Amino acid sequence: MAARKVVLITGGGRGIGAASVALAAKAGWDVVFTYAGNAERAKTTEAAARAHGGEVLAVRADVGDPAGIAASFAAVDDRFGRLDGLVNNAGITGPKATLADSTDAIWDRVLRVNLIGAAACCREALKRMGRGGAIVNVSSRASTLGGAGEWIHYAASKGGMDSLTIGLAKEAGPLGIRVNAISPGLIETELHAAAGMPDRVAQMVGGVPLGRGGTAEEVAEAVIWLLSDAARYVSAAIIPVAGGR
Ligand code: NAP
Q1: Which ranges constitute the DSSP H helices of 61-116?
Q2: Which of 29, 80, 151, 154 is catalytic?
Q3: Is 88 in the pocket of ligand 1 (CB under 6 A)?
Q4: From the CA of 19, how far away is ligand 1's center (Å)?
Q5: In the chain, domain spans
Q6: Is 154 a known active-site residue?
Q7: Would you identify the CATH topology of the domain 6-241?
Q8: Would you call 7 helix, strand, or coil by DSSP?
Q9: CB of 194 closer than 6 A to ligand 1?
């Protein structure tokens, strides 16, 4: 029997990442996932995914820190010695702020985690995807909507991620590596409360043609499809999962 495929999912402790960890395990992947600091939630996610069979390993590692990225890939190497998939899901909005009120420190941290960290993870993944592979970047509809009045810094980091997706798909295609992005809309996770806007989805749902916020699982379904062989001719795609928004 062929060895099981291995995927690294960043930011897998909660939200969209946790739903992706669960669905990946269910789909037959062995999973390494990272989290920033919430060990309790990571433990719950790890146990729930293990119930689907296969191996699941949680690693506390900051994707905004080169040492954290090195530790994440070292965990993959030590436990599995192979890598077939990467989901760049870890992301932060930074605080709500207009461009005028934002600071270099906000821009530095948000770009560091969302874009530079994701690019560095792609670089590490390329070194290990000798048999080909699939990379899925979790971008945001903010990349084209612009984040005005809330977080242009966040929107710009996701715009960078879209460019990363398109460019790397062209560089890595000849190596048998597909690179795609999911662009979620308003999804019911703790991300909004973390930015000080716990009711954000409910308040903005009027702008969603399908009339509701999305769930983490609905985003994860698309992530896992892009990882799978069913998407074998799909690369450089940026797929909105946003209820038409
Ligand atoms: P979330 O509920 O806030 O969960 C974020 C996860 O990422 C947590 O597990 C957190 O770890 C981890 N994380 C945060 N910073 C990290 C870092 N520096 N290094 C490693 N892990 C880190 O977020 P979410 O809503 O699921 O968002 C996931 C992705 O979807 C993000 O890239 C976000 O930009 C994107 N997205 C979300 C929405 C939405 O409406 N929710 C819309 C568009 C795009 P801890 O658990 O340890 O804190």
Answers
A1: 66-79, 104-111
A2: 154
A3: no
A4: 11
A5: 6-241
A6: yes
A7: Rossmann fold (3.40.50)
A8: strand
A9: yes
